[in-house]
Design a protein that fits this description.
β3 and β4 (84-87) form a beta hairpin. The chain is globular. 9% of the residues are buried. The protein starts with 35 loop residues before the first strand and ends with a strand. It has a two-stranded parallel sheet with strand order 1-2. A two-stranded antiparallel sheet has the order 3-4. The chain contains one helix and four strands, in the order βαβββ. The chain is mainly β. It has one helix at 42-48, and strands at 36-38, 63-65, 78-81, 84-87.
């Protein structure tokens, strides 16, 4: 789980600053520096598991954004989020 923060986060080339990464085989590194997740799918999961405490970051994401349609994303797509330029890699 991640904790909600109101201030900006620093996204480096290999990870989010001050983020705990347990297993670098699956998280962190050049192609997995930040885990972005769509807020739009939270209602689906909340409906399936209504007794869980559904705070942002429930899926371990570093950034939760609204309006992200994962079906339209392609590897190589580039987005600007705040001051960061990010590219979909996996």
């Amino acid at each position: 789980y991640k904790n909600l923060v109101e201030e900006g986060i620093f996204l480096g080339f290999e990870d989010v600053q001050n983020d705990a990464v347990i297993d670098r085989r699956f998280h962190g590194g050049i192609d997995k520096a930040c885990y972005l997740f769509s807020a739009d799918v939270y209602p689906y999961w909340k409906n399936l598991y209504p007794n869980l405490d559904w705070g942002w970051g429930m899926f371990g994401e570093n950034l939760t954004v609204e309006g992200l349609d994962e079906a339209t994303l392609n590897i190589g797509d580039i987005f600007k989020i705040g001051e960061a330029v990010v590219q979909v890699s996996k």
